Amino acid sequence: MTTQASFKRSLVRSGIYTGLLCLLFVYFTWNDNSLSDNLLALPYFAMLYFILLSIGKPRVSDWVREKMKGDIRRIFLFPVLLVLLYFSYIAFNGENPLKGTIFLIPYLLFFPVLLFAANGNKTQKTDWLDFTTFVLYFFPVTLLEAGPSDLPFNGGGFDSVYRISVMLSAVFAFVTVRHIRDVGFYPVFKWRYLFTTLWVWLAFYAFAFVIGYALRFITLSEEHSIDLLSVEKIIKRTLGIFLHTALFEELVFRGLLQNMLKKRIEQPGASKIFRRWGLVILVALSLLTGYSLKGNMQWFPALVTILLFGAAFGIEKTAKSGHGTYTALAITSVIFGLVHWHAGSIIFVGLASIGGWAYGYVYLKTGNVFYAALLHALVNATPLLFGLDLAK
């Protein structure tokens, strides 16, 4: 198969996936929103998701990279497109694009793209600029109140133009411009990957249920029942989590952070440093997090941190995987759990770290963010599916 034919085939598949998403979008939003809201949101939804489902593919990314030829003026065009789509959607819905913090959006969308374009690092070797760019981009992204840009505009649970634009900017910057080719941010269907995702989901929730039920964090709902309406609600909820939350978080934590940490730790002499200092720093942060929250078992997040690092060390000691693979998984998992401090629950933070290990494990086995995101969505939707109540 020629490169050109392979490129076209990749776009056709993206078009098919986009079409299926659009059908689901119409089905779940048509009766809950006005006709004008839906008709305006649908083309933006289709355009943004077609780009999102395409740009992370190595063949598409390489083709775009070849066309840009390192010319910063051509690279500049992609974030310009994102800004135009974002501002036009806001304006068409009667909002002022320059109101509040919305005017900061162009800075966010341009920042990682232009930084990597100016740096010109073409190697696969991860350096500290990569991590600095990662932090300086995603930290403000999580704090910024970007204003209304939901799809549909007045609510519907199918993500937002802002969230999709942020992901697109990150993927374009890290995959296309920086040329980290193995991020795995593209849809692909393989039965083996799906089976891995499903058994990890069941194994994780069985484990989490035992811990959570014993600690009275998880209880069984007395009014749970399954009917046609509840099935539809579960499907919509799972799809909404997948698109709005899981894809973003798995791109950040698994596709980028875990991926880059693995590359950095695998460099000569780095594994012991990351293992030791990672454990010391993250245990300290886990204790600080536990004692900053109300309730008992403040040591629980720290215990989970020690166990995850111990598991990583044991696996890597057997020489069945390269030094760094599971250390990176442990570090990323604990950080993922700690950022859930906002949930206000000590047990939730610890279980989120264990969940991060599950998501990262699926990412290791599939090399694909979408399967980690699918697991993430299934885990988040499980309480609704099985009638569980979480005590937060």
Summed over residues and divided by their number, the pLDDT gives a mean of: 89
Order of helices and strands: HHHHHHHHHEHHHHHHE
Name the beta content range.
under 5%
The shape, in one word, is globular
How many discrete domains? 2
Q: What is the share of helical residues?
A: over 70%
Radius of gyration: 21 Å
Helical element count? 15
Give me the count of strands: 2
What is the rounded distance between the termini?
53 Å
Q: For the largest beta sheet, what order do the strands appear in spatially?
A: 1-2
Characterization of the model:
With 392 residues, this protein is mainly α. The chain folds into two domains: 3-177, no CATH class; 191-390, no CATH class. The protein is 72% helix and 2% strand. The chain is built from 15 helices and two strands. The chain has helices at residues 3-29, 35-55, 58-68, 72-75, 77-92, 105-119, 128-143, 161-177, 191-214, 228-265, 271-292, 300-317, 325-338, 346-366, 369-386, and strands at residues 218-220, 388-390. α5 (77-92) packs antiparallel against α6. The protein is globular and about 50 Å long. The model has no long low-confidence stretch (mean pLDDT 89).
